[in-house]
Amino acid sequence: MLEGNAPGAARDAVSARSARQAVERAVFAQPLFGPGMGLVDVGCGPGSITLGIEGGHRKSTVDFLVADVRALPFAEASVDVLFAHAVFEQLKEPGTALAEMRRVLKPGGTLALSTSDWSRARLRPKTANVDAALRGHYLLCRRAGGDPFAGRSIPAAVTAAGFRDVRTKTRYRTDATYRSLATYVEARLVTALETATTPDRDQLASAARSAWSWARSGDGDFAQCWTELLATR
Question: pTM of whole model > 0.85?
Fold first, then answer.
């Protein structure tokens, strides 16, 4: 939930990323990680997942680099495994990033992605207020250059980028409580309204009112949908 870059979400995003663990986020790719392998964790944030991966191989060396996913600072065909969690939902042009990832992977190397898909998130009860608030949330995601439904389209994008043997699995995870999601969405919408001057201001205001009602409506259930994907260079 808090792992994207919606406007006003920076502090929450850093906190959420610090709490991420490899045992949860990278479990589908764990068999790929072995001694002596060159692994790149794209979009690693504070490195909590990275260090969890490294923890199983005590002689590993971990370096942190600031880089653009469209221009990775690695030689062509130099990486064994490229891992990315909660990255592609933030990208406006995923094909460019995938082409760059393919460039740095060795022939036979593996791409391992975990990408959220809000279109298949499970919320109960899913009332009219929940739907309206989430439409505002999706609008903010798109305004920031992302795609809240990226998990739905990422397999086709990976195939189009030239990867082969594309395998996917859907995993549902409780990344937040129903009420904390409502509070988060409400806060993001309110923050966006403070600077909104575009024609979508009325939609954001309506979504914020719906989020206010949702946050005060009682408890429920929320599970985020994640598309976990493995593909070969």
Answer: yes
CB 86 within 8 A of CB 24: no
Tens digits of residue pLDDT in 25-50: 888 998 898 888 899 999 988 888 88
The answer to whether residues 47 and 83 touch, using CB atoms and an 8 Å cutoff, is: no
As a whole number of angstroms, the distance between CA 189 and CA 133 comes to 9
Report the Cα 112 to chain-centroid distance in Å: 13
The amino acid at residue 122 is R
* 61 alpha-carbon distance from chain centroid: 25
HEC string for 145-175? CCCCCHHHHHHHHHHHCCCEEEEEEEEEECC
d(CA 29, CA 31) in angstroms, rounded, equals 6
Q: Are 136 and 185 in contact (CB under 8 A)?
A: yes
Q: Around 198, how many Cα atoms within 13 Å sit in the side-chain half-sphere? A: 10
- In angstroms, rounded to a whole number, what is the distance separating the alpha carbons of residues 128 and 14? 30
| Strand-pair category, 79-85 with 221-232 | unpaired
8 A C-beta contact, residue 82 and residue 112: yes
Largest CA distance in the chain: 55
Distance CA 150, CA 166 (A): 16
